[in-house]
Amino acid sequence: MRSLRLCRLCVNKLPELEKESITKIISSDQNVAIATTEGRLFMSDNGGAEFEEIPTGDPSGIVDIHFLFDGSLWVANEMGQVFTVNGVDRRFEEIGFQETGISAARWSPDGELLVIISLPLENEDALQVLTADFEPIAVQAAVTTQPGEQVMVNVGWGSRSTQFMGQAGKESREIELKAATKLSDRDNLQIGLCWRGDAELFCTSVPCSSGRRTRIYNREGVHLSTTDSPSIFLGPISWRASSLLSTVAESISGQLIVAQIERNGLEHGQIDLILQDQPVTKIAWNASGVLLLVQYSDYFELWRQENYHWYRQVLQKINNDGTTFIFWDDCDANILHVSSGGILSKYHIEAFVNVYQSSKILVADGKFNNFTDYEKAIIPPPMFQSQFDSLRSKPAVVTEDGALIVTDKAIVNAQDQSTVMEGEFSDVNQIFALGKKAVFLVHDTLEGSELEYVTPETSIREKTLIQPCWITHFARVNDNTFFVSMLNQEGDYELVKVQVEKGGLHYTPLDITPSTHMYRSLFCSQGEPVYICKNQPYFGCDKLPLKNGETVLSLAANDEFIAATTTCHELLIWDLSKAGQAKGAAGIQSWQPVRRGCERGASIVTLFGTKVVLQMPRGNIETVEPRAMLFKQLGSLLDNEKVEWKQLFKMCRRQRVNLNLLVDHSGYKKFPASEFFIELLPKTAGKNEVDAFLNFIYELSEQNCTHPGGLYHEIYRERSERSPKEAEKVKLICNTIAEKAREDGERLSLFLKIYLHCRLKVVGMEKTLVAMAELRQQKQVPVEKLSEGIKFLAIMQQGDHDLYHFSLKTFDLELALIAAQAIELDPKEYLANLNKLDKLEANFRKYVILDQLECYSEALLQLIHLHNLKDDVERNIPTVEDYVNKHNLFNFVIRLPNLSKQFKKDVCRAWADKMKDSSHDLQAAILYKQSGDEALSSTLFSKRQRWRLASDQKALRSDFDERLASIPTQDAGHASWGVNRDPEESVRLFVEANQFENALMVCNSTGRADLLQTDIQPAVKSHALSILEQLKEIVKAWSERLLRLEECKANQLRKIQIMNEGYDEDQGDFDDLVSDLGSVRTGSSRVSRSSRSTAKSAKSRRKNERKKFSTRKGSPTEHLGLLEEAKSSVGKFQKIVDELGSFFVVLGYCGEFILGAEIQDLVKRFINDLEHEIHKIWPRDDEGLVLLENFQKEGTLRDLRDLSVLAPPEIPKRFHNFSIFD
Question: Segment Disordered: which positions (predicted)?
Answer without folding.
Answer: 1080-1116
